[in-house]
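Weekly modeling sync, notes
Attendees: AB, CL, MP (scribe)

Item 1: holo prediction request
CL wants a bound-state model with NAP before deciding which constructs to order. AB pointed out that an apo prediction alone won't tell us much about the pocket. Agreed to run with the ligand included and paste results into these notes for async review.

Input as submitted:
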Amino acid sequence: MKMYVGTEWIDKRQTIPVTNPFDGSTVDTVPKGDADDVERALQTAVRGTKAMRALSGYQRAQILKKAAELLTARTEDFAKTITLEEGKILAESRIEVARATEILVLSAEEAKRLGSEVVPLDGAPGVTNATQMGFTLRVPCGVVVGISPFNFPLHLVSHKVGPAIAGGNAVILKPATDTPLSALKLTQLLLDAGVPAEGIQCLTGSGGEIGDKLCADPRVRKITFTGSRDVGERICKTAGLKKVTMELGSNAPAIVMPDADLEKVAAAIAATGYANAGQVCISTQRVIPHKAIYGDFLNALKTKVSAISTGNPLAEGVKMGPMVRESDAKRVESWVQEAVAGGARLVTGGERQGAVYAPTILADVTPEMRISRSELFGPAVAVTPANSIDDAIAMANDSNYGLSAGVFTQNVNWAMKFAREVESGNIHINWGPQWRVDLMPYGGLKESGFGKEGPKYAVQEMTELKMVVFHLS
Ligand code: NAP
């Protein structure tokens, strides 16, 4: 595909192949954008801010609603594109398209709600309604840059572009190099829906090469980033005095207390630890069962996890596809081997075929092991027993990350203790960490980032508040 920069779909002499992670075949190529393309995109976006500001809330809502309708009509094409470039199974890709559609609908609704608030200035000493009246005005940020990761190539792009358009901004998208096709198709769809030609652009190319120029430029007012912790930190340093939203990584924990229904817990961990081959920022990575049910829980989980079939993600019936790159599957393999060498026990899995890594359970993992400390982002869970709820919460919090966490218990006191004490942006009682609907506020604590997504919350971050005071005579 071509990239959309400066109101044109353009090619470059240098291109980057987009590879099917399952069989290594080339799905397509995209242009390798460079510094000149960044400059052109920025100049266009600055002009685009005028076109976007000129649209009323009603018009922006209509465009986003139309985009949602078009996406529904193009579901199968988008789902197949996601599976081909990213490797998740077709059933998950269809859900991703449905969720992206929902994000556009939610963004359309928010476009109509960006109102002002009368501020009761007469609450200040010496001020009366006869002397001063004041209200807020919410205005667009201007140029918004949205940088997205590989693992949800449509859904996460929609969480950026939907609220940005709802807020009346001009957007420059920079999708992940592994999975740029869904974002390019979404850009075409938004243009078809009526976004002004200068209001959106999609720049492809290596983030490491063009990212600094894009993020450092003072014409950009807002950067919304989803991706790894280290790239997020670099962007924060480069960005300087800009508004930034950081949706970063995690190594999400799930605690299992002795009063939980272990069959249900096993089903929940199998669902939340291995979807998209574990390449989900809120994938269950660390499971912390109470020692009283440790063995029974492992038996129940083994039954569920060994039933997850792997293979070609386009084939119906396959439950888990490849990782995005063979190098990532090799990395997961080496972390698992390192844990086993350190005393962990392989309960199931542990094999690799190309980019497909078998769904894996490791027991007797200690908190010092790499698989407990860093973000694995792969289809393995690390199980470590705990002595008590306090011990389990301490282990859950023994992480630089804090994006999502779950506890399984029928005890309301344990559940509330967990909700209060676990340092995490999302808390789930009786489900694993991987659960999200797109209207809720979503974002991490600690090194998992800051700022919230979910159109109602993101649109606040994509706009700015002015205070207007009338001095009356
Ligand atoms: P990544 O390597 O951090 O890349 C994310 C994006 O940043 C890509 O578009 C990448 O471009 C770009 N980039 C790289 N270097 C850059 C720079 N110097 N300046 C600006 N942009 C730059 O992440 P990933 O491997 O694609 O995705 C996995 C990570 O995303 C995991 O850590 C996961 O937890 C996190 N994630 C978080 C959430 C959340 O909501 N919190 C959701 C999903 C994923 P290139 O592809 O061209 O390098």
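Recorded for review: Residues 147-151, 156, 174-177, 206-208, 211-212, 215, 226-228, 231, 234-235, 247-250, 281, 375, 377, 403, 444, 449 surround NAP (CB under 6 Å).
Action items: CL to compare against the apo run; MP to circulate these notes.
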